[in-house]
Every structure is written in structure tokens, then in C-alpha cells.
Write a structure and sequence with these properties.
By secondary structure, the protein is an alpha+beta fold. It has a single domain (23-156), classed as Immunoglobulin-like (Sandwich). It has helices spanning 2-17, 132-156; strands at residues 27-29, 31-38, 41-48, 57-62, 65-71, 77-81, 88-94, 97-99, 106-108, 111-112, 116-118, 121-123, 126-128. The strands form four sheets. Strands 4, 5, 7, 10 and 11 form a five-stranded antiparallel beta sheet that branches. A hairpin with a 2-residue loop joins strand 12 (121-123) and strand 13 (126-128).
Length: 157
């Protein structure tokens, strides 16, 4: 009987001393990034858990080169005011984020939008074909983008 009381007392005291983990909120949130390119706007939405949507950094890449960054609004929407000179490619990226403090850790996983090939600029009235001047400008932009990529690669090695 005495051993039984001591054992019960040890279990109760051990339960009071042991760290409380039942209230911990730990999760990993899958995200998805969509993109829309039209005229002078690139817009999209970061989709996932509500905790992963608002106040997140979205990076814009044109022709494979980082151009700009913005922050999502509360629902996950983002936008860039930029004129894209065709032909080129456009993509947005979310690097992921870690939120919260132990034991309440929240990890939002990275996501890339689809790669949009821009051959023509879309307007409200439909696509606008590239002029010879815009094609020449695009060639210059691609050359500068390639040079930037080469410089970045040289600096990182």
C-alpha cells in the first residue's frame, strides 16, 4: 500500500514538473503562387494557410533576372507596376518563411509561380503585336539580363 501511494505521488509530481507540450502549435504550410501578366501590371496571389498569406515577400524575375520585390496584402494578393518588353519571361517567387516562436513554430514552404512567356503585351482590348522597335529593345534587354547573370555568377564563385 505504501509503495502504491509513493508511486502515485511520483506520477502526480512528475506530471506537474514535466514541460507542457499539449498546447504547442507546430505546422508546415504548403503554399502556391499564381501570376497574371497584363499590360503594365503583374499580379497574383499567394495561396495557402491564412498565416502564410499576409505580409510575405514576393520576388519578381524578368528574363530570369531579379527585378523587384513586394509584400503581399492580408489575403495574399500582390502586384507589380512594370512594363515588360516582349519577348521575355516573367516569374514570381516566394522564398518561404518561418513564423512564430518555440513551441509555436509555423513554416510556410517556398513556391514559384508558373513561368510566363511574354511574346505580346495583353491589353483590355486583346494582344498587341510587338513592333520592330520593341523587338530591338527586347534584344538589348536580353543582352543586359545575360550580362547581369554572368556578373552574378562570377561574383558568387
Amino acid at each position: 500500500m505504501r509503495r502504491g501511494l509513493i508511486a502515485a505521488l511520483l506520477v502526480v509530481v512528475g506530471g506537474m514538473i514535466a514541460p507542457q507540450t499539449a498546447g504547442a502549435d507546430v505546422w508546415v504550410g504548403q503554399t502556391n503562387l499564381n501570376i497574371h501578366v497584363q499590360e503594365d501590371w503583374i499580379t497574383g496571389m499567394l495561396v495557402g494557410r491564412p498565416e502564410c498569406r499576409g505580409n510575405q515577400t514576393i520576388d519578381l524575375y524578368v528574363g530570369g533576372v531579379w527585378v523587384d520585390a513586394t509584400t503581399t496584402e492580408a489575403a495574399g494578393g500582390y502586384g507589380f507596376a512594370i512594363t515588360v518588353v516582349p519577348p521575355t519571361t516573367v516569374q514570381t517567387r516566394f522564398a518561404g518563411s518561418k513564423e512564430g516562436v518555440h513551441p509555436n513554430n509555423h513554416d510556410c514552404l517556398p513556391a514559384d509561380s508558373r513561368l510566363v512567356v511574354v511574346n505580346k503585351v495583353k491589353t483590355a482590348n486583346g494582344p498587341v503585336k510587338s513592333s520592330p522597335e520593341s523587338l530591338a529593345a527586347a534584344s538589348i534587354v536580353r543582352s543586359v539580363e545575360a550580362l547581369g547573370t554572368s556578373i552574378a555568377a562570377a561574383l558568387s564563385s
